[in-house]
Amino acid sequence: MSFIKTTVQNIRRSPYQTIAAVIIMTLTFLVVSFFTFLLVGSSKIIQYFESKPQVTVFFRNEAKQEDINSLENKLKEEGRVSSVKFVSKKEALAIYKEQNKNDPLLLDLVTADILPSSLEISTYKIEDLSRVSEALKSSSIVSEVIFQKDVVSTLTSWTSALRKIGVASILVLSLASIFIILTITGIKISQKRTDIHIMKLIGATNWYIRWPFIFEGMFYGVVGAFTGWVVSTIALIAATPYLSDFLRGIPILPASPIFLLALLGGELLLAAVLGAFSSYLAVLRFLK
Predict the structure, then answer these.
(1) What does pLDDT average to in each consecutive run of 10 residues of the chain (288 residues)?
(2) Beta bridge partners of 118
């Protein structure tokens, strides 16, 4: 308990240094939270698109049903294809009528005979869509393959770039946090140099002297992480209605409370380790 009491006294006696350390920790974990939201959200968006028919294959009118069935079975046997759905001419007409139900003139001009049958294909990995698309183009019964390659490629590259930017930003802010806490702890140790010498003369061990400073660093980290998490979570909840409209049809919001609590737990643990490590480095040099 004496460690905790000493830690509280150290924090109360230097409020401005405490505020500076907490602010830098808050900024660090605010960035951690936001980039975690973005990375998890983008991963779910990719999973959503991977679960939807991404390659649509239209067949020639002369294509025989047994040839279409053979191609469908061949696709199902491949390890990269997750699902294959056959859309007949009648089903294609029903879809067309639903899409153009407010325009009777267009409905009168189209019959099932002029609409091609098709396959809607999904893959386990979004990267495999291009390979499947190229393989289908070589089939003699295929008239057209629709694959939004640019959209898929952009989404994948955007997620990859976001991950790199997030990791770099977190590393930079983490290093800044370590430097700030190390500096603040070093200043406090210098101010208490006489007291520490007296404690060592009366038999205090190095760890007895270290623990209050380590607890202080953990305090900075935990308070900063909690504050950053609260601010980012409030911002996410406030933006959820607008993001839901923008991401219409993609079920990634609202965020799960379990996910938010798990993120809080992970950030608090990381913050405690970061704060303790920073303070330990500062104390280690003085007490060698």
Answers:
(1) 64 74 84 84 73 76 81 78 81 71 63 75 76 80 76 71 78 80 75 70 71 82 90 88 73 81 90 84 70
(2) 58, 87
For residue 116, is the peptide bond before it cis, meaning its omega torsion is within 30 degrees of 0?
A: no
Which residues, other chains included, contact 80 with Cβ-Cβ below 8 Å and sequence gap of 6+?
A: 123, 124, 125, 128, 131, 132
> Do the beta carbons of residue 246 and residue 43 sit within 8 Å?
no
Name the 3-class secondary structure at 123: strand
C-alpha span between 113 and 124 (Å, rounded): 33
Q: What is the pTM of this model?
A: 0.66
How many alpha carbons fall within 13 Å on the CB side of residue 75?
A: 30
DSSP 111: -
SS3 label, residue 147: strand
Half-sphere exposure (CA, 13 Å, Cβ side) for 41? 19
Helix (H, G, I), strand (E, B) or coil at 117: coil
Ramachandran area for residue 103 (φ above 0: left; ψ -120 to 50: alpha; else beta): beta
Whether 123 contacts 81, CB under 8 Å: yes
Closest CA relative to residue 217, chosen from 194, 245, 185? 185
